[in-house]
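hiii, so i know i said id send this last week but things got crazy w the move. better late than never?? heres the sequnce for the chain we talked about at the cafe, plus the structure i predicted for it. fair warning i was half asleep when i ran it
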Amino acid sequence: MARSSLRRLTSLGLMSTVLAACSVLAPGGTPPTPTVAEAQAFLDNVNSTTLKLGIAGAQAGWVAQNFITDDTEALDARASQAVSDTIAKFAKEAVRFDSVTLPPAQRRQLDLLKVSLVLATPASPEDAEAVTKAVSRMRGVYGKGTWCPEPARPDACHNIDEVTRVLARSRNEAELKREWEGWQTISPPMKSDYTTFVGLSNKGARELGFADTGAMWRAKYDMPPDAFAQELERLWNQVRPLYLELHAYVRMKLRQQYGAVVPEKGPIPAHLLGNIWAQDWSNVYSLVAPARADAGYSLTDILKTKKTDALGMVKYGEGFYTSLGFAPLPDTFWK
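okay and structure toks below
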């Protein structure tokens, strides 16, 4: 039996022992109300188990994303499934403490446990394996995806980094459109796996008591899913007038740059916004900046002037977290 399976069985066996100890029937045949101590024991087990599985999952994911092969995808899928299956099991068991009056810290941990998953694997082992394998395959297809401007020259194909650079720097509309449309060709092979992901992830979410995966995601914000959607709509309507004005202004400036390919009204062609997902428009600022606008500054240039190396970048990152009160990284990290 694989080591991962043994670890999973061991951790789940410990959990079964804890639950068995707490399930002695009270007079009349009904389970007694769980205690605060039992809730704490449950949470301690959850935290220690998920920490170990989380580290193993992160290690497998790092290897799979940096060395993309069928074998590393399989390892990543198994590690991801171990995490998802265990957390899903714990989330279902947490319902046992819903009627118990607990200290706020315990109650919040239990509530967060129920919504901590991005992917809730179904209880069926076959379905759980199918959905985690589908997700791992999609990550692999995306990570190693390329398109070839010159099919006769496979050595000149563009991966996500080259596509990102072209979209950020080029001001040639034809080149931008070709790059954008070329990159979209990597997605059709993912259609079947994505369909599997949607169906089985929704099934897993329903087993946790949510309407679907979307409702599970929207439940992460200390309010019911429907209330979150309503709050999002309220906030969007506050900023919508400003967004429409900014959108119209950017559309006008891009029309001046690229001509009739940018319509006078309606959406802006996505390939002209300087970003592979059209979600960040900062790369077209030089085209749309108002006259005599503050040029701002280049963080990259500042770092180069200071001769900041890779280690220095990590030090900056550590400084951010220590400023929030987190502990410094241990010596073992730097070694």
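btw The chain has 14 helices and no strands. thought thatd interest u
miss u guys!!
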